[in-house]
Amino acid sequence: MNIKMSLVGIPAFVVLAITSFSAAAGTDMEEALNNGAQQLTADEIAERVAGKTVTYILPDEREVLVHYGAENAASGRMVGGDWSDTGYYGITNGDRICISWSKSDEGRLRCFSVLVVNDVVKKFHPDGSFAMEAVKFEDGNTL
User: Fold this and answer.
1) Is 47 helix (H, G, I), strand (E, B) or coil?
2) Which of the chain's ends, N or C, has fewer CB atoms near its CB within 10 Å?
3) Rounded distance, CA 109 to CA 125, Å?
4) What whole-number distance in Å separates Cα of residue 142 and Cα of residue 25?
5) What is the DSSP string of 81-134?
6) Over the chain (143 residues), what is each successive 10-residue block's mean pLDDT?
């Protein structure tokens, strides 16, 4: 009888352990949303970036400037680096911003969800991992 009681407790322990592990394995985006971040709508994204140059800080601390121009043209350059490129961007009905760099992406689109986290605009990859943080928005092309 002691053996039966011990075996009955094992599945409950396994379920609890898996549930705890799953909760801890959330993405950066899920964590931000759970802590009060707001996902921007397509209109809110357009309002923040269209016609502006945005300064982003990447996870490795590099700084990148991106100008979101007229007719969905994009241009960008790395501050203090040798990367620069042109391409196009679009904002989807699914509340994401997508960009394709002519040289870097060869036509492939990179799409991001945009959240406001503690008054800071952050972009997240489709897998929910953190991509970059917007630190400055300037009207026009300041590249």
Assistant:
1) helix
2) N
3) 12
4) 40
5) SS-EEEEEEEE-TTSEEEEEEHHHHTT--EEEEEEEETTEEEEE-TTS-EEEEE
6) 44 39 68 94 95 96 95 95 94 96 89 94 96 96 91
